[in-house]
UniProtKB/TrEMBL annotation:
PANTHER family linked to this entry: CHLORIDE CHANNEL PROTEIN CLC-E (PTHR43427:SF6)
Ranges in a coiled coil: none
UniProt subcellular location: Membrane
Any single GO CC term annotated in Swiss-Prot or TrEMBL for this entry: chloride channel complex
Residues annotated as transmembrane: 28-45, 66-84, 167-189, 201-219, 239-267, 279-297, 327-353, 365-392, 398-419
SUPFAM superfamilies given in the database record: Clc chloride channel (SSF81340)
Listed Pfam families: Voltage_CLC
Source superkingdom: Bacteria
Protein name: Chloride channel protein
UniProt xrefs under InterPro entries: Cl-channel_core, ClC, ClC-type_chloride_channel
């Protein structure tokens, strides 16, 4: 065989191999990113649990240590708000509004200000700091911003151009891995993140959820977030509980989200002359009140509220007014400007509300707690399908499928009648508006620097 022929044949073969690698490289990078989100979510969960246990241990280690939150919590809030403002801007709050806003932006630089590896790192660190300070926050919402940030970064490295679909996939993977609820991750992506069905993105979402879920499953094993419940309506009083949890939970959720949106507008206007100084003052005051509520409640309102919610699902009702105290602590933690989510605290508020209704009516505490979670959560986020699926997957209560579904829908309808704008989408408008203003200012400066001839 002539040398020239052999050389051309080897060249063609190398081109085929290289072309095949270029074809598979984006997929391999995407799959690696999805697996990494699962690993990061598990690590984040373990660190968050450790932070909460550390705070509880420190504040219950001696005769007078229960007063420590009055010092530790305000200081922690101020430090977290300062770091979020100076080192990790746009890390404040849940993180879900940032992911929603990023999907509406058209420039990659604007998205990077809301979703980046730097922000993901800051989000994890500051959420853990908040839990270490006793804030009434959760890690699930932040996991959405972390997942979306990580997916967008690795996909950029892999040469994938579907930014909106990748943000959707990273967000869904984050929820799925955080709660161990793969179906809820998919429903959340469709119903809450996009508000529309995008057939081109469904493959990305499904693949990301499967891979992140497999990674989380391999590290944490198979489990239900709140254990396995077996509650079903057996008496007429249980159906009364269902109606009250739907209407009452939806109204309570609408009140929370409506006040949060209104307070956000007022706080931004109030902080304008000296934003850093005034936001730190606000964080300190919110932290002080959160600490006071926590001390008065015997430490029940500090942290995510997971233990109280799980206890209610297992039939052990928390104090009758626990849901009011937890709602107040969660609201103040949210408006303080520190990073942290509202998923877990909302489930705790809902479980507390439901168990109170069940106690007063005389129905099943476990069923009432589950229905309370469904009604309140659907009222807060105005996403009934997500509420139904996530609570069903977290409790494994398949005997109450219809009641949970009905309460989720009643809570959603009640909330929509009282508050027209969904919470996360209302909050996302702030980030979208800020990005548009920054883009216009930059374009205006560019126009002035380079006037047309």
């Amino acid at each position: 065989m002539p040398p020239i022929y052999r050389k051309s044949k080897l060249l063609r073969r190398s081109r085929v191999i290289w072309g095949s690698f270029n074809l598979w490289r984006p997929r391999l990078v995407f799959w690696t990113g999805a697996l990494a989100i699962g690993v990061i979510s598990v690590g984040f969960a373990k660190l968050a649990d450790l932070a909460q246990r550390t705070f509880t241990g420190v504040t219950h280690s001696g005769e007078w240590t229960w007063l420590l939150p009055l010092v530790l919590t305000p200081l922690g809030f101020v430090l977290s708000a300062y770091l979020a403002t100076t080192l990790f801007p746009n890390s404040q709050g849940s993180g879900i509004p940032q992911a929603i806003a990023a999907r509406h932006l058209h420039h990659d630089e604007d998205r990077t200000k809301l979703l980046s590896l730097r922000l993901a790192f800051g989000k994890i660190v500051l959420t853990i700091l908040g839990l270490l300070s006793g804030a009434s926050i959760g890690r699930e919402g932040p996991t959405v911003q972390v997942g979306a940030s990580f997916m967008l970064a690795v996909a950029r490295f892999g040469g994938m151009a579907q930014a909106k679909g990748l943000i959707l996939a990273g967000s869904a993977a984050g929820i799925a891995a955080a709660f161990n609820t793969p179906l809820a991750g998919i429903v959340f992506a469709i119903e809450e993140m996009s508000r529309t069905y995008e057939s081109r993105a469904n493959g990305l979402v499904l693949t990301a959820v499967i891979l992140s879920g497999l990674a989380a499953l391999g590290l944490s094993g198979s489990y239900n977030y709140f254990g396995t419940a077996d509650a079903a309506p057996t008496m007429f009083r249980d159906w009364i509980v269902m109606l009250i949890c739907g209407v009452g939970g939806g109204a309570l959720g609408a009140t929370f989200s409506g006040l949060a949106l209104y307070a956000g507008i007022r706080i931004r206007r109030w902080a304008q002359p000296q934003p850093l100084k005034r936001m730190l003052i606000l964080a300190g005051l919110c932290g002080l009140v959160v600490a006071a509520v926590g001390v008065l409640s015997g430490g029940q309102t500090f942290g995510t509220g997971y233990e109280q919610a799980r206890g209610a699902v297992e039939g052990h009702a928390p104090p009758l007014l626990f849901f009011v105290e937890k709602l107040l602590a969660s609201f103040l933690s949210m408006i303080s400007g520190i990073p942290g989510g509202i998923f877990a605290p909302s489930l705790a508020v809902g479980a507390g509300f439901g168990s109170t209704v069940g106690t007063l009516v005389g129905g099943s505490i476990a069923l009432a707690a589950i229905l309370g979670m469904a009604g309140y959560f659907a009222g807060v986020v105005q996403a009934p399908m997500t509420a139904f699926v996530i609570i069903l997957e977290m409790t494994g209560d398949h005997q109450a499928v219809i009641p949970i579904m009905a309460v989720s829908m009643i809570g959603y309808v009640t909330s929509r009648l009282l508050s027209r704008e969904p919470l996360y989408h209302g909050l996302s408008r702030v980030f979208i508006a800020a990005a548009i203003r920054a883009r216009r200012a930059m374009e205006k400066e560019g126009g002035e620097e380079h006037p047309a001839h």
